[in-house]
Amino acid sequence: MPFVHLVIALALVEFFLFGVAVARARARYNIPAPATTGNEVFERYFRVQMNTLEQLVIFVPAVLLFARYVNAYVAAALGVVFLIGRAVYFRGYVRSAAGRHIGFILTAVPNLALLIGAVIGAVVALGARP
After folding, report:
1. How far apart are CA 44 and CA 38, in angstroms?
2. Does residue 128 surpass a pLDDT of 90?
3. Domain annotation for the chain: domains and CATH numbers
4. In the chain, N or C terminus with fewer CB closer than 10 Å?
Protein backbone atom coordinates (compact mmCIF):
# COMPACT_ATOMS: atom_id res chain seq x y z
CA MET A 1 0.00 0.00 0.00
CA PRO A 2 2.88 2.49 0.32
CA PHE A 3 2.85 2.95 -3.47
CA VAL A 4 -0.87 3.73 -3.37
CA HIS A 5 -0.36 6.17 -0.52
CA LEU A 6 2.48 7.83 -2.44
CA VAL A 7 0.29 8.19 -5.53
CA ILE A 8 -2.48 9.75 -3.42
CA ALA A 9 0.02 12.16 -1.87
CA LEU A 10 1.30 13.09 -5.32
CA ALA A 11 -2.28 13.68 -6.52
CA LEU A 12 -2.79 16.05 -3.60
CA VAL A 13 0.49 17.84 -4.34
CA GLU A 14 -0.59 18.17 -7.97
CA PHE A 15 -3.93 19.62 -6.87
CA PHE A 16 -2.13 22.06 -4.57
CA LEU A 17 0.08 23.18 -7.46
CA PHE A 18 -3.01 23.70 -9.62
CA GLY A 19 -4.30 25.98 -6.86
CA VAL A 20 -1.05 27.94 -6.96
CA ALA A 21 -1.41 28.25 -10.73
CA VAL A 22 -4.94 29.60 -10.28
CA ALA A 23 -3.71 32.16 -7.75
CA ARG A 24 -0.98 33.29 -10.15
CA ALA A 25 -3.46 33.49 -13.03
CA ARG A 26 -5.82 35.50 -10.80
CA ALA A 27 -3.04 38.06 -10.27
CA ARG A 28 -1.82 37.97 -13.89
CA TYR A 29 -5.30 38.54 -15.37
CA ASN A 30 -6.46 40.90 -12.61
CA ILE A 31 -9.39 38.82 -11.39
CA PRO A 32 -10.09 39.96 -7.82
CA ALA A 33 -11.40 37.38 -5.35
CA PRO A 34 -14.04 36.04 -5.10
CA ALA A 35 -14.71 36.46 -8.84
CA THR A 36 -14.24 33.35 -10.99
CA THR A 37 -15.00 34.96 -14.34
CA GLY A 38 -13.76 37.89 -16.33
CA ASN A 39 -10.90 36.48 -18.41
CA GLU A 40 -11.10 33.38 -20.58
CA VAL A 41 -7.59 32.15 -19.78
CA PHE A 42 -8.11 32.60 -16.04
CA GLU A 43 -11.40 30.71 -16.31
CA ARG A 44 -9.60 27.75 -17.90
CA TYR A 45 -7.07 27.66 -15.05
CA PHE A 46 -9.95 27.77 -12.59
CA ARG A 47 -11.86 25.00 -14.41
CA VAL A 48 -8.78 22.77 -14.33
CA GLN A 49 -8.61 23.18 -10.55
CA MET A 50 -12.33 22.57 -10.04
CA ASN A 51 -12.47 19.61 -12.42
CA THR A 52 -9.47 18.09 -10.64
CA LEU A 53 -11.28 18.47 -7.33
CA GLU A 54 -14.32 16.73 -8.84
CA GLN A 55 -12.11 13.88 -10.06
CA LEU A 56 -10.25 13.55 -6.74
CA VAL A 57 -13.56 12.87 -4.98
CA ILE A 58 -13.79 9.69 -7.05
CA PHE A 59 -10.09 8.89 -7.29
CA VAL A 60 -9.00 8.84 -3.65
CA PRO A 61 -11.59 6.41 -2.26
CA ALA A 62 -11.61 4.33 -5.45
CA VAL A 63 -7.83 3.83 -5.48
CA LEU A 64 -7.86 2.86 -1.80
CA LEU A 65 -10.73 0.39 -2.23
CA PHE A 66 -9.23 -1.08 -5.40
CA ALA A 67 -5.92 -1.56 -3.61
CA ARG A 68 -7.68 -3.26 -0.69
CA TYR A 69 -9.90 -5.61 -2.67
CA VAL A 70 -8.07 -6.13 -5.98
CA ASN A 71 -4.36 -5.28 -6.15
CA ALA A 72 -2.31 -2.45 -4.68
CA TYR A 73 0.29 -2.43 -7.47
CA VAL A 74 -2.34 -2.20 -10.19
CA ALA A 75 -4.09 0.54 -8.18
CA ALA A 76 -0.84 2.49 -7.96
CA ALA A 77 -0.18 2.04 -11.69
CA LEU A 78 -3.67 3.29 -12.54
CA GLY A 79 -3.03 6.16 -10.15
CA VAL A 80 0.10 7.12 -12.06
CA VAL A 81 -1.94 7.23 -15.27
CA PHE A 82 -4.43 9.46 -13.43
CA LEU A 83 -1.60 11.81 -12.38
CA ILE A 84 -0.24 12.01 -15.91
CA GLY A 85 -3.76 12.56 -17.22
CA ARG A 86 -4.30 15.48 -14.87
CA ALA A 87 -1.01 17.08 -15.98
CA VAL A 88 -1.92 16.62 -19.65
CA TYR A 89 -5.40 18.00 -18.91
CA PHE A 90 -3.86 21.06 -17.23
CA ARG A 91 -1.50 21.83 -20.11
CA GLY A 92 -4.10 21.20 -22.79
CA TYR A 93 -6.97 23.06 -21.18
CA VAL A 94 -4.95 26.15 -20.26
CA ARG A 95 -3.87 26.45 -23.90
CA SER A 96 -7.42 26.03 -25.23
CA ALA A 97 -10.66 24.46 -24.06
CA ALA A 98 -10.51 22.04 -27.00
CA GLY A 99 -7.12 20.78 -25.78
CA ARG A 100 -8.48 19.11 -22.67
CA HIS A 101 -9.84 15.89 -24.19
CA ILE A 102 -6.78 13.60 -24.10
CA GLY A 103 -6.04 14.55 -20.50
CA PHE A 104 -9.65 14.00 -19.55
CA ILE A 105 -9.61 10.51 -21.08
CA LEU A 106 -6.34 9.72 -19.25
CA THR A 107 -8.15 10.69 -16.04
CA ALA A 108 -11.57 9.17 -16.66
CA VAL A 109 -10.41 5.73 -17.76
CA PRO A 110 -8.29 5.01 -14.65
CA ASN A 111 -11.02 6.43 -12.42
CA LEU A 112 -13.63 4.21 -14.05
CA ALA A 113 -11.37 1.14 -13.82
CA LEU A 114 -10.63 1.85 -10.14
CA LEU A 115 -14.29 2.41 -9.36
CA ILE A 116 -15.51 -0.72 -11.15
CA GLY A 117 -12.74 -2.82 -9.59
CA ALA A 118 -13.52 -1.44 -6.13
CA VAL A 119 -17.22 -2.29 -6.43
CA ILE A 120 -16.60 -5.76 -7.85
CA GLY A 121 -13.89 -6.45 -5.27
CA ALA A 122 -16.16 -5.42 -2.39
CA VAL A 123 -19.05 -7.52 -3.74
CA VAL A 124 -16.76 -10.56 -4.11
CA ALA A 125 -15.46 -10.03 -0.58
CA LEU A 126 -19.05 -9.98 0.68
CA GLY A 127 -19.73 -13.26 -1.05
CA ALA A 128 -16.60 -14.84 0.44
CA ARG A 129 -17.72 -14.17 4.00
CA PRO A 130 -18.30 -17.30 6.09
Report:
1. 11
2. no
3. 2-127 (1.20.120.550)
4. C
